[in-house]
Amino acid sequence: MNMIAAVDGNWAIGCKGKLLVSIPNDQKMFREMTTGKVIVYGRKTLMTFPQGQPLPGRTNFVLSANPSFSVKGAEVVNSEEALLSALKAYDDGEVFIVGGESVYRMMLPYCDTVHVTKIDHIYEADAYFPNLDELPEWEITADSDELTYFDIPYTFLRYERKTKGADHDFLL
Predict the structure, then answer these.
(1) What's the CA gap between 4 and 158, in Å, rounded?
(2) What pLDDT is recorded for position 51?
(3) What residues contact residue 51 under an 8 Å CB cut-off, 6+ apart?
(4) Pick among 2.140.10.10, 3.40.50.1000, 3.40.50.300, 3.40.430.10: CATH of 2-171
């Protein structure tokens, strides 16, 4: 599975239920990588999407602890086990975990690749992505030249798990 996130210099991803910054090139890359794929996210992340609706052109899974929560255009699952079971129907490489913090932390053990937009700035934040630079099983396998949006420098990075497949017995 894949993850995709934009993080600041402290691996922050959000503040008060909103993204830290919107960079058009990052949004374009997100669209290109996830369109036609399966995306997985939590209910709070859904509320940050346009009109609080699932993203079009993708198979949407929303993780919510509330068993009565439902949303048109997405499959709602209520537990990690239910999500993993539902994802067995899809190719591992077609699945993207897209947020937020609790979903990223829960699903990181099942992922082999993480696409990170690393923003060279520190924002006020209350939600964080796991710092992959501090986790020895992850390594950067691709990076872009530094790009700039107004005065905000950022790079696109790809992290890959050094021992692929180690935690993926659920897919067998």
Answers:
(1) 9
(2) 94
(3) none
(4) 3.40.430.10
